[in-house]
């Protein structure tokens, strides 16, 4: 599929969430986009993707909502009550009048819940200036290298140097693990909000 022509928007590459869960995706953008409309759309090709929510209207549709924070140059998309049919490619997008819109794809994977224990998977992009890959909880500790523990939870990190992506898997999650985490590549920090629901 096609990427946008100018990559002035960034986010995680992939997030894996169990069915019934929720996730908040951060979409970071450059200062020049502060006053532009942002939107979240679905589809493998950005030229024909279906817009779900926008920062002008609608800001909420069913279980999906969008919020822009121009001071922090980030807009966030929250998806609740995720179902298997929500598994798809989505786009963090910025509307640019008179030119191509800008944005980046996010692959949302929804598990059917048959994995052992509650787990989360995130793929984080990194660039040429990146150094050490870390997965951190905001206000807490970090895990680097191939594996470790974060607040007692096992974490595995895999580095795909060809595609410049590192994958993080975290197991044994409980409701108290809900919160903000960072993909940290030594140059850029991208936040991800993880919501862990109570077991049924």
TrEMBL record:
GO molecular function: transmembrane signaling receptor activity
InterPro entries associated with the record: CD300_family_receptors (IPR050671), Ig-like_dom (IPR007110), Ig-like_dom_sf (IPR036179), Ig-like_fold (IPR013783), Ig_sub (IPR003599), Ig_V-set (IPR013106)
SMART domains found in the cross-reference section: IG
Compartments in which it is found: Membrane
Main subcellular localisation: membrane
Pfam families named in the record: V-set
GO cellular component, one term: plasma membrane
Organism domain of life: Eukaryota
Entry keyword annotation includes Membrane: yes
Annotated Ig-like domain residues: 5-111
Gene3D superfamilies xref list: Immunoglobulins (2.60.40.10)
UniProt keyword terms in alphabetical order: Membrane, Transmembrane
UniProt key word Transmembrane: yes
Name assigned to this protein: Ig-like domain-containing protein
